[in-house]
Each structure stands twice: as structure tokens, then as C-alpha cells.
Design a protein that fits this description.
Its cofactor is Mg(2+). The protein is of the alpha+beta class. It has helices at 3-38, 123-126, 146-151, 163-167, 170-180, 288-295, 311-314; strands at 66-69, 73-78, 83-91, 132-135, 158-161, 187-195, 205-207, 210-215, 218-223, 237-238, 245-246, 250-259, 262-271, 285-286, 308-310. It folds into two domains: 1-61; 68-314, Extracellular Endonuclease, subunit A (Extracellular Endonuclease, Chain A). It is built from seven helices and 15 strands. A hairpin with a 4-residue loop joins strand 2 and strand 3. The protein starts with a helix and ends in a 5-residue tail after the last helix.
Length: 319
């Protein structure tokens, strides 16, 4: 074979080898780019962006959902307001039995170092603020061991609460009510969290489609105005060296009880203010749908709402 024919064969062979190599490599590259884009997006029926135009190529700005799993409770943490979105618990008569020597006086409030410093609340934020460090998952629910109780004193489990008449009285009575439910039900699920609710011009708060206002020991509930209305969002923020921790206008608890395959539930929204003990807990009961609309949260999505009986029709909702 002449040198000219040999060179031509090598060139032709290299050409076809290059085509084959390109054919096998390009799909791999495209798939990698598509997978990178897909992990950042949810399909809402819109067309996908062209390959190579991934907006989140250098990171997703958030918001980050910090799911903090402790021994007795789990928290979904709100980095912006530096309080929880919610704290969830599963109570039974057995896990509420207090361990020997366990005492809340042995627990200290501590910053949650599992969170980045710029996104967590600090001990100095509450000092001199006039607000209590209010537990979302109560210390009284975590008495099995001292370590378990200590976890409830992490500041990620706290939100600013009015002390006299609320955190130290009515709210504490409500927490005890939840524990007492374990005497009548095999399982009690409790979700607790803060709310920042807008207000009407007359001072009523708007919860989804419902207007609510505490007058003495009665809560006035009405449909929110159907006409276009201007609402205002007013809440305080506390902090050392700057605004850091949002002060909720309200707090909620959503309860689910289980016994013999039957379920009851109740949703409650309480203002962050002193409440007279004589006020019936049922005054604060609200439609779950209104709470979900106001909070952006969904509860018990794996249960049919038709299977949920009214808790306050089953037990007396008083504290």
C-alpha cells in the first residue's frame, strides 16, 4: 500500500472515530445539564429552559427550610423571622412519664448552634425586651430525661411571648390541656407555631377569610369584608444590635387525637396578649382551612378531612 493511500485511510478512520466519539459523549453531557436544571425546578406545566441556561447554576438563594429533629419534637425553622414555622410533637401517656431527677430548673436557655449565626436568635435579643422566651414545644412534654428537656430550651424552640397572663398562665394551661388529652386518647399529635396576622381598621385580626377579635372573654368571629379592603400588618421586632426576632401577633395549636382508629382534630388561634383564665378554649377554635390559608401550612394531608371529628364536640375544651 502506498504512503498516500495509507495517510488517506488514517484520516478517514479518524473522521469516523470522531463522529462516533461525539455521538456517544453528547447525550451524556446533555443529560447531565438537564438533570442539573431539573433538580432546581418543579414542573408547573411550563416549558423548560434551554440547556446551559440554568439560572441556579451557582446556587439556590432559598428560602432554606431547616428541619430540626430533636428527641421529643421536630421544628421547621424560619430564618427570616428567627422563630419556628411550626413545632411538632407526638404525645402519649407513656412518653409523658417524668424521669427520676428531671427538673426544668436544671435546664438553661441556649442558642441553637446548628443554625448559622446570622440566622439564629441570640440570648441578648430577649434581654430587656419585655417578652418571655416562649416554648413552642413545651418543656413539660419532655420530662423523660434531662437531656430531652434541655433540648426544649434551645432558642430555635422559642418565640417572644407576653409573659403575665399569657405565657405564664393561659398558654401554660393550654399546654397542660394537650397533655391531659393522653388520658383519653392513645395518641395526641400537636403542631404549634407563631402567626403574623394583618388587622382591619377596627383592630380585628384577619385569619384567612375570617375576622377574629378578643373582647373580654369572648372572641368575635365574622367573615372578612367581601369588598376591597385595606389591611395593615403591624408587629414588633426585638433584637440586640438591630431588629432580629419577630414578635408574633398570634400563636396556633393544631391537635389530632387518635383512639381505636378514630380521629378528632381541633385548630386554635390565640392572640399574643394576656387572656383571662375564665375564657373558654373553644372561643379560640377556628376552621383549619382558615388557619392553613393564613399560615401557608397544610396539616394532616394524608388523612381525609371527612374522617376528622370535632375535638371540642368530643371533649370539653376548657383550660
Amino acid at each position: 500500500m502506498s504512503r498516500q493511500r495509507l495517510n488517506f485511510s488514517l484520516v478517514l478512520g479518524g473522521f469516523f472515530f470522531g463522529i462516533l466519539l461525539t455521538y456517544t459523549m453528547v447525550p451524556s453531557f446533555v443529560n447531565h445539564e438537564s438533570q442539573h436544571a431539573a433538580k432546581h425546578q418543579t414542573n408547573h406545566g411550563f416549558s423548560k429552559r434551554a440547556v446551559g441556561q440554568d439560572i441556579l447554576k451557582f446556587g439556590n438563594p432559598g428560602p432554606v427550610n431547616d428541619l430540626l429533629e430533636r428527641t421529643e419534637y421536630t421544628i421547621s425553622y424560619n430564618r427570616r423571622d428567627r422563630i419556628a414555622y411550626w413545632a411538632g410533637e407526638h404525645l402519649t401517656a407513656a412518653n409523658l412519664v417524668k424521669g427520676s431527677g428531671v427538673d426544668r430548673d436544671n435546664s438553661d436557655f441556649k442558642e441553637d448552634t446548628s443554625l448559622p449565626s446570622i440566622f439564629r436568635s441570640h440570648l441578648a435579643d430577649y434581654k430587656g425586651s419585655g417578652y418571655d422566651r416562649g416554648h413552642q414545644a413545651p418543656a413539660g412534654d419532655a420530662g423523660a430525661t434531662q437531656a430531652q428537656m434541655d433540648e426544649t430550651f434551645l432558642l430555635s424552640n422559642m418565640a417572644p411571648q407576653v409573659g403575665v397572663g399569657f405565657n405564664r398562665e393561659y398558654w401554660a394551661y393550654f399546654e397542660a390541656f394537650c397533655r391531659d388529652l393522653t388520658q383519653n386518647f392513645t395518641d395526641v399529635y400537636v403542631f404549634t407555631g407563631p402567626l403574623l396576622l394583618p388587622q382591619t381598621s377596627d383592630g380585628a385580626s384577619v385569619l384567612g377569610d375570617t375576622s377574629i377579635k378578643l373582647d373580654g372573654t369572648k372572641v368575635t368571629k365574622a367573615a372578612a369584608p367581601s369588598a376591597q379592603t385595606s389591611y395593615s400588618m403591624n408587629y414588633k421586632v426585638i433584637g440586640s444590635g438591630g431588629a432580629n426576632v419577630a414578635v408574633p401577633t398570634h400563636f396556633f395549636k393544631v391537635l389530632l387525637t387518635v383512639k381505636g382508629g378514630k380521629y378528632t382534630s381541633g385548630a386554635f388561634v390565640l392572640p399574643n396578649q394576656a387572656i383571662k383564665k375564665s375564657t373558654a378554649l373553644s372561643e379560640f377554635q377556628v376552621d383549619l382551612s382558615s388557619l392553613q390559608k393564613a399560615s401557608g401550612l397544610q396539616f394532616f394531608t394524608d388523612l381525609s378531612s371527612t374522617n376528622l371529628a370535632d375535638l371540642c364536640a368530643t371533649v370539653k375544651c376548657v383550660v
